[in-house]
């Protein structure tokens, strides 16, 4: 699943007329790069959630045939349901097994075919080094387990694997992801890895401009 429903407030005015996942780095939309990477990893089905200017994303990606993917869409109109709410609404389209989720506004060379999740785990997170705009990080990491707090914290990349049971007890609506992650960590059911390769959160016009200036 690619998360693509957000308004992208920090990216305004660019996102007043273009959804953030369609903003370009090196002449290619962020979501195009992600769809290609997921297809290269051998994934065959993709769900994309939509809200703000979602029809532009639907028109760009289409049915996914050009990527070798079958793309379905999860509509969140009139407004995005936050991360967990959006994934929960899409669960019927994601099937009974574990599934990968990636934020639609990141730029990365992460190889998605390396993603895995243990049989006893409800979630697996990809963490990265803390970027300048988020120096405090999000979660700790010890012996392959994600921790809700630690002396050394890393930033959640927006790349993860979940099992449907991760969302047990939830109901359709707007709700955030972090409380569910903390619940899984406290139960010892959330693994993690630290990725040291290319990863950028394209969250502001300045960061987008910097990426394009480097010729990435």
How is this structure best described in words?
It is built from five helices and 13 strands. It is of the alpha/beta class. It has a single domain, classed as Spore Coat Polysaccharide Biosynthesis Protein SpsA, Chain A, CATH 3.90.550. A hairpin with a 2-residue loop joins strand 9 (140-142) and strand 10. It is globular, with a radius of gyration of 16 Å. The chain starts with a strand and ends with a helix. The mean pLDDT is 94.
CATH-defined architecture: Alpha-Beta Complex
Shape: globular
Q: How do the helices and strands follow one another from N- to C-terminus?
A: EEEHEHEHEEEEEEHEEH
CATH class: Alpha Beta
Report the structural category: alpha/beta
Residue share in β-strands:
25-35%
CATH topology: Spore Coat Polysaccharide Biosynthesis Protein SpsA, Chain A
Rg computed from alpha carbons, rounded to a whole number of angstroms? 16 Å
Indicate how many domains the architecture comprises: 1
Number of helices: 5
Report mean pLDDT, rounded to a whole number.
94
- Amount of helix: 10-25%
How many β-strands, per DSSP?
A: 13
Strand order of the largest sheet: 5-4-1-6-11-8-12
Quote the distance from N terminus to C terminus.
Answer: 24 Å
Unreliable stretches, pLDDT < 50, 5 or more residues?
none
Q: Which superfamily, in CATH terms, is the homologous superfamily?
A: Spore Coat Polysaccharide Biosynthesis Protein SpsA, Chain A
Oligomer state of the chains in this structure: single chain
Largest sheet: 7 strands, mixed
